[in-house]
Amino acid sequence: MKKHTLTFALTCFFALALFSAQAQDKKGGKLLKDAPTSKEVKDKANDAKDDANTMTSSGKVIPKQGKPIEKMKDQKDVIKDQQNTNEEMEKLRMEYAEKLRNTKDPKEQAKLKAEMEARMKALQNSGGSVNSDDKSDTGPVTMDNGNSDEGKVDTKPMEKPKGKPKKENPSSDVSLKDQKNEKVADAKAKLNSKRANLDNTRMMIEKANAKLADAKARLEADKAAGTLSEEQIKGRESKISATEAKVKRLEATLQNAEKQYDEKESTLSTFTKEN
Amino acid sequence: MKLLTQLFILALLVTTVACRDTQKEEAELNATIEQVDAIDAQLDTISSDIEAKTEDLQQTLEELDSL
After folding, report:
1. Closest by Cα among A209, A242, A193 to B50
2. A202 interface with B at CB cutoff 8 Å
């Protein structure tokens, strides 16, 4: 009986695992279709960078309008932290104020003051510094810690936003496929534009041939008129032949390019078919 | 107990095969991406070659016009 139950349970487990694997495959396919292009991914990354830039070096956060809810949540977290720090500092200040009132010895008072300042600094470092702008954001905090940072360049490293970094795609395979598809599409677009440029080059070759014919006709006319010396004739002929050679070379390059473009296109289309 | 071991081995095999498939697919994709990059670079080379030759020809044609 026990054995049968165990077998049944294991069969159920494997059936469930298979089912979930299939469902994930389908989801993956769907994701591939809906996957954002690398441009979108880049835009998102830029947005994230912009968000990071809104945090100043002092850890202050400038909330932006029209941002996604998650980003706003992060900002709220940072603001909450700052509020907590402010509250703690206020408590500390009150505590030391009482101690100072109770002590009459000036040396002891100076010691207490120094201790208070040190603790406040430690609090600021752990929870982000507080300046006048933050006070206005976080409510009525009337504390004066005697440690004004205005005008100073804060060299502390920027506080990283809390929470795990969001993944663009759950599956790296999907993102790779997406990357491949986009690269193939880009290459195809490039190929088409290069083909269009080949047409321009062909037109140029035709013009060059016309100019060559014109130059040859002019040379023959000048020869017939006898206005040119032999050196001049040789110079012109050499220039004409050099231009002809260049035109032929360009034509050969053009034909070779066409062939190569055809090959590349077929390769790219096989990549597209593989999907 | 025997059955459990058998099933465990079966699951291990299935997992191994699935992982190998994924790795293979990833490697193929990477290879394809590299090929596409190579094609992209070749396209640039071809077009730059044509451009250089075209510019050269244009200069020669200008000289020919000035004759």
Report:
1. A193
2. no
User: How many Å apart are CA A209 and CA A197, to the nearest integer?
Assistant: 19
Nearest Cα to Cα of residue A264 among A186, A189, A181, A188? A188
Contact A7 B3 (CB under 8 A): yes
Query: Two tokens at A31?
Result: 């994701």
| Helices A2-34/A172-225 angle, 10° precision | 30
Rounded to whole angstroms, the Cα distance separating B3 from A180 reads: 44
Q: Give the closest-approach CA distance of A157 to chain B in angstroms.
A: 36
* pLDDT 10s digits, A83-114: 777 778 778 887 877 777 777 777 777 778 77
ipTM for the complex shown: 0.75
At A219-252, the pLDDT tens digits run 899 888 888 888 888 988 999 999 999 999 999 9
For an interface test with B, which of A2, A175, A260 has the most B Cβ atoms less than 10 Å from its Cβ? Answer: A260
Enter the DSSP assignment of A160. P
Residues from B contacting A (CB-CB < 8 Å) are 3-4, 7, 11, 18, 22, 25-26, 29-30, 32-33, 35-37, 39-40, 42-43, 46-47, 49-50, 53-54, 56-58, 60-61, 63-65, 67
Per-residue pLDDT reduced to its tens digit, B27-65? 888 999 999 999 999 999 999 999 999 999 999 888 888
Give me Rg for the CA atoms of chain B. Answer: 29
